[in-house]
Amino acid sequence: MICGFRNDASGATVRIDWDQVDSAVAAAPDAFVWLHLDVSDVRVQRWLSDQPSLSRETKALLLGTENHVPLRVVGDAAMGVVSDLHHDFDDDPSAVGALRVFFDERRLITARRHPLQAVDRLRRTVERGRCELRPIPMIAALLHHLADAFITLVHEATVDLDAIEAAILDDAGEGAADLGRVRRQLARLRRHLGPQRLALGALGARPPAWASSEDSATLRDAVSRIDGVGHDLDLAQERARQLQDERAAALAEITNRNLYVLSIFTAVFLPMTLVTGVFGMNVGGLPGLNDPSGFFWTMVLMAATGGATLVVLKISRIF
């Protein structure tokens, strides 16, 4: 077990150890308990499997590996998988992990296999006494911490996009690798946050029956903040897409300009090439073959044809 908390007789928050879990769960009808579990631990897996108060569906969710189970109300409880960011120890801090959540009026059980940011911030918040130990306030606090974690990445991506935009304006050939990295990161975040926004919106609209009107309003505020983060993420992703289109258009313009210059050179040298081809034929009767000044007049003819081509192109306003 990573951590556990319960309410004592006076309503104060008390931390519990692994050997106190069974007694805390047994007292759940008269108090609230939060268990944060590491389901990669065999002892935790065995304990969850042996819990008679948990349904088979709940056990399958907490012990499973499916990461796309939306948070939904089932009877008097709610359960599902919430996307959370990996804790930035050694891994990529933008990597997204799965936090498995089950809660009813007296219990909150969260489970994960890798260290995650938002739920760890929730643990510190509870330890400092800044969160009421009840299900809806704790879920709302978790959603606020999720929003903080995601908005940090969105802000960093926005700063990167500012730098990429400046680099593209200076030189369209720059910024390709950074832009691709940011677009991949935003797409990965949106792939997880998009479905989560819809599920949380449904939960905020239809909370469990035991939730009070005040708790429902608290939950809706937290859900609206997640939705706002999703909106900012959509804007950042759209901006990244526009920068990609702008860069592609600038590169296409550079390519077209280079091809235009090359076409002008080709048009100028084509008549000159024709002259050299004619005078390069090894047949009798070529003019100037025995004339000492033949080479000079050939060069004059080549220059004249090139100059005439330039005049024609200029008159035609091709350049």
UniProtKB/TrEMBL annotation:
Q: Which residue spans traverse the membrane?
A: 259-283, 295-313
Record's subcellular location: Cell membrane
As one GO molecular function, the record gives: magnesium ion transmembrane transporter activity
Membrane topology designation: Multi-pass membrane protein
List each coiled-coil range.
226-253
InterPro entries membership:
CorA_cytoplasmic_dom, CorA_TM1_TM2, MgTranspt_CorA/ZnTranspt_ZntB
> Which keywords describe this protein according to UniProt?
Cell inner membrane, Cell membrane, Coiled coil, Ion transport, Membrane, Transmembrane, Transmembrane helix, Transport, Zinc
Could you confirm whether the keyword Endoplasmic reticulum appears in this record? no
Which is one Gene Ontology cellular component term of this protein?
Answer: plasma membrane
Task: Look up keyword Ion transport and say if it applies.
Answer: yes
Q: Which family does it belong to?
A: Belongs to the CorA metal ion transporter (MIT) (TC 1.A.35) family.
The protein here is known as Mg2+/Co2+ transporter
What organism does this protein naturally occur in? Hansschlegelia quercus
Provide the organism lineage as a comma list.
Answer: Bacteria, Pseudomonadati, Pseudomonadota, Alphaproteobacteria, Hyphomicrobiales
